[in-house]
């Protein structure tokens, strides 16, 4: 959007994307390891069927968050989801020291 400041763009993500990801957390957490792993193929099929990456973003981030929790014992903070979404949008994400750049979801096509 023209005139959006970085702060306004981040707040928009905090108000829209983050709640969507958080609402999916319990249902994604209940998946078996096999079902969680199968999400990648499901996402590919959905993209092949016409879904946009933006359509998949909340669920994909919820899956990444759960995979990190299971494999690394670390859960993405909301600010890390915002950083990943900013990168997904092709923008530069600036995060302060201590905000967890290491766990910000990777943003590449499936």
Can you describe what's shown?
It is a single chain. By secondary structure, the protein is mainly alpha-helical. Helices cover 65% and strands 0% of the residues. Helix 1 packs across helix 4 and helix 2 packs antiparallel against helix 3. It comes from Geodia barretti (Barrett's horny sponge). One of its GO terms (molecular function) is ATP binding. InterPro entries: P-loop_NTPase (IPR027417), SecA (IPR000185), SecA_DEAD (IPR011115), SecA_motor_DEAD (IPR014018). This is Protein translocase subunit SecA.
Helical fraction: 55-70%
The count of strands amounts to 0
The ordered H/E elements are HHHH
Look at the helices and sheets and give the structural class. Answer: mainly alpha
Helix tally equals 4
On the 0-100 scale, what is the average pLDDT? Answer: 83
Radius of gyration (Å): 14 Å
Coarse shape? globular
Measured between the Cα atoms of the first and last residue, the distance is 26 Å
Largest sheet: none
Note the beta-strand portion. Answer: under 5%
Low-confidence stretches: none
GO biological process, one term: intracellular protein transport
Organism: Geodia barretti
GO molecular function, one term: ATP binding
Domain SecA family profile: 1-110
